[in-house]
Design goal:
7 helices, Rossmann fold, five-stranded parallel β-sheet, 249 residues, alpha/beta
Length: 249
Amino acid sequence: MNDSSVPQRQPLLLKYLTPGEVGKHLERDPRLIVPVGTTEQHGPHLPLGCDTIIVERLADELSAEFEVLRAPTIEYGVNAPTASRYPGSASVHRKTLHRLLNDLVGSWEAGGVDQFIILTAHGVDPHLEALSTLHPTRATVRAVDIFAVPLPKADGTAPIHGGEVDTSLLLYIDGSLVHPDEARDYFPSPAVERRYQRGARGAIPRGSPGSLGRPSLASAEKGEQLYDYIYDRIATRLFRQPVDSGDAL
């Protein structure tokens, strides 16, 4: 999405800056992007950090384009419950994530941040509740599930767990992380599919490979189109114009 002939700005990564440098950036723009990922199975073909990798790429490019500070990534979230165990998958409770973010937001706010843009690529209800109910003293908080952006129709379902959308995005961002030969299509029951189409998230059904949907339909080309669409929608609504807290993506 960028012209490779033009020198590209780098993201403003908080962990590499001194307090003085952070202060100067906040005097110019008092916003902070906070990416929140997960460490969770997305089928045998995708890495555990699928959500994290997607949201980090978005956070880095938004930080670079709009020169907004970017916080270190929160690598763990509230995973969807599963009937099976998946090695490496690790979750925290809603209250744990909420308390962690509340503590961090309070610290950053005391240091001069007055607007938090929390980005996640994970739509489990308790996860989003933890991110959207933070209580800073005076700062504002926008918690955004990037998949809440109305997407072009993919495989006829919502962008559900480890399916065509997730797989396409990872193929575009870093195809070396995807194992297409191990992908398994899994068609959830109509009740489960309706729940996901409404935006709700529930348990990964027994018999699933850890993913839902049709990763076999994924491609890097689709991933690039989806990524650019999501990026442009978030950039326009959150960075290119003033946004009221009640605005939808």
